[in-house]
Specification:
This protein is mostly helical and 169 residues long. The chain contains 7 helices and 2 strands. Helix 2 links the parallel strand 1 and strand 2.
Length: 169
Amino acid sequence: MGISTLQSYRGAQIFEAIGLNKDLVQKYFTGTPSRIEGIGLDVLAQEAKMKHDHAFHPVTEADTELELGGNYHYRIRGEYHLFNPLTVSKLQHAVRQESFKTFKEYTDLVNDQSKQLCTLRGLMKLKTSAKPVPIDEVEPASEIVKHFASGAMSYGSISRKRMRRWPSP
């Protein structure tokens, strides 16, 4: 995002709220776009209470280890991750062996989001059109890519205004 300080982040509204209902977004993130609704304060409060209760549950002698928890690192019997040992292995084998069959197995695992719901597309059922858009109305790839920017740094972070802060060598 090109944000390097808290001051530049506050109020920047460079993101879209996903999974929060409109009332919550309007009250606490005023002006933030949100096209996909979700939970409200009631669910957030309930989840916070559940986490608090779990943190302060009485410990027994059978409790010898802390739960691993966490949402980002893959763990056996943990939360499902889209990129897990099976999907990564399938992709590696497909590339190393130049096997389209194995690549198809990989894409089937990644694309079937209906069971695990790891992505927004897993929550959607796409409809196909009975009448596709005529190909002559579709922009060529050479024009489509002009709509995207892929710089590794934000333009603001390397602007002349920002660069003048540093003394010359």
